[in-house]
Design goal:
The complex is a heterodimer. Chain A is mostly beta strands. Chain A has a single domain, classed as TolB, C-terminal domain (Neuraminidase, 6 Propeller). Chain A is 8% helix and 44% strand. Chain A contains one helix and 24 strands. In chain A, the strands form six sheets. Chain A has a four-stranded antiparallel beta sheet, with no helix packed on it. A four-stranded antiparallel beta sheet of chain A has the order 2-3-4-5, with no helix packed on it. Chain A is globular. By secondary structure, chain B is α+β, with helices and mostly antiparallel strands. Among the domains of chain B are: 99 residues, no CATH class; 102 residues, no CATH class. Chain B has 17 helices and twelve strands. In chain B, a hairpin with a 6-residue loop joins strand 11 and strand 12. The longest helix of chain B has 16 residues. The chains are: A mainly beta, B alpha+beta.
Chain lengths: 295, 389
Amino acid sequence: MSERKGLLSFLLVLLSILPLSGAAGGGVPWKWVMSLDKDGIGVHIKEPTALYYDAKVKRYYVVDSGNQRLVSFDEQGRYLNQFSAGGQLKGPFAMVKDAQGNLWVVEKKLNSLTYIRLKERVVERHSITLPSGEAVFPDRLAIDSVGTLYLLDRGSGRVVALDRNLRVVKQFSAPGDGRFCDFKLKSDGLWALEPLTRRICHFSLGGKLLREIHLKGDLDFPISLEVDSVGLIYIADRHVGMVKVFDSRGNFKYAFLEKGENRGRIYYPFQLLFDEMGRLCVVEEGNGRVEVFQR
Amino acid sequence: MGWRWLPLFIALSLLPFAAYGGTASCFKCHKKAEFQKAVVHKPVKGGECASCHSPHVSRYSGLLNQPVPRLCYSCHRKQKALFSKGRFLHSPVKKGECLKCHNPHSSASKGLLKKSLPGQCYMCHKGVSRKFAHTHVPFRKGRCLACHDPHGSSDYRLLKGGDPGICLRCHKDSPSLKRVHLGYSLKGIQCLSCHSPHGSSRKALVRESLHEPFAHKECGECHDRKDKGPGICFQCHDEMESAFYTNHNHLLAGVGNPCVSCHSPHASDGKALLVGKEGYLCQRCHGYTYERIEEALYVHPKWDRCTDCHSPHGSNKLAMLHEDENRLCARCHETQGKFTHPVGEKFRDPRNGQPITCVTCHDPMGTMFKYNLKRSGDRDLCIQCHKSY
């Protein structure tokens, strides 16, 4: 009897440890849910560069750069619609929607931050300049709850905040003249990735640098970042086809995914994004799709 | 018998080896003169041939007890620790080829080098041995090691210090130095971006190709401008601006004006005014890629000529390639795609629905499989798509 009790308690201890060991190492807590990969007639997305999630209507918008269009999907990954502004989009790279449901699109080919008023079918292209008069090279884009646009300027490597007249009102720059390659807006401020020195800079939305986090561990080619609700930092490592996770001090926690073309593998990831449900979306330029993972 | 005889047995069995340590028997065959040059390796001096060699049989060439470099590092522990820290290692050090430069017995040259300097260096660095109208003094005297660390360094040129620190050790930062630079502050400058450390046809060792405003002493063209970004360069090189209107571009490179992280605004040795050799320039930021290539068994020929395939400014294509993979590869591999596996828009990879390209099966940067295949061509690669193969 006592032997049985001992065996049972040993099994209980073992079972209680298992989930922990899974999260820490081999068993990664992310499972593939769906792919956003083609339109209604089976035309595959080509060289996607960004994803925007609209929490209001619960839709994903994939920037299908290779096909010069934006493609929308519902929460189950079903294709909904596509938009190319009547064939006017030139090198779409990133997009957001404003409160009126209109689109801001970065058009790389024209170096433009473009506003598209959908109802009026009007496309307005804007060249942005820094206060010094230097041209901004628009790259990643985000919008906050009050409609302020945040734009990554590839030329200066800074994130700039724009007012309604598209004037630069705030600049977020990496200490030591580093250059950001991606950023995310969160409730606690702006998080930006500086790839050359493997740093994360956390700013208040007022522009104050709150802290720098040096990522410790192997990173080959960091290209995009995400931050979850408990402060874990997710980095897309482009050339090795992995997502690497770090704690809020920059210590490496675990890595998942591997390079490849099959479902659940990634090839040349370009952007990470958490949707409203906390699902991690990986924009894969190489495989022409967005892979969505759930915890 | 018992255990009391054991020490005697061990001592007797070691006797023959002790005899070899004495070397007298070695020199019956091996010419003694080869071991008696000006600089003698410590074990040779002590007659300890057996500390490196096994006199009867060995798995390693030269009847060595261990392979090189393990054998060398068994004594030279400090060096081993030091080399493991060096970001850039001299190629023989990286490959563990100590004997490429050093004679393990004796040598006429310091450091047991096989040849005296600079001859030793020129054995491999053949192009460096040139005559210039104006020559840097250490170079003229063949004192390569005045500036270079022959094992490794934190600098890709294996310099003993950073630029300008290494230069300022001799060329002291003085008012006269500032004067010849037209009074501009020398803070944070990089001497080697304009001056050749070996020699030049120009005075003051200024490199051969000059940026036009610099050649005409029109410093204000660039320096008097308000903006400090790439716009300075685009005011003349406007044709380059659109190269950066691309999904992937090198505007991200470096600090300040990104153009000058690759191009010298003053002088360089080539028409493109690069601040270093192409392969090395790319390595500064893409070090991991280089490490991966060096570990691969099969790599693309001339892989360090990066811009043959990659656009150095910007591109919308994956990996900043000049154009679609198929067309790019066909620039050299003319017959590929015509009689081999079908490629192109009509033929789709069942795994991701993307067009089949050369890069579907090959990784031109290097792999562990023949023909730079991503997986084994015997079967593993094919069954990725042809499940019933």
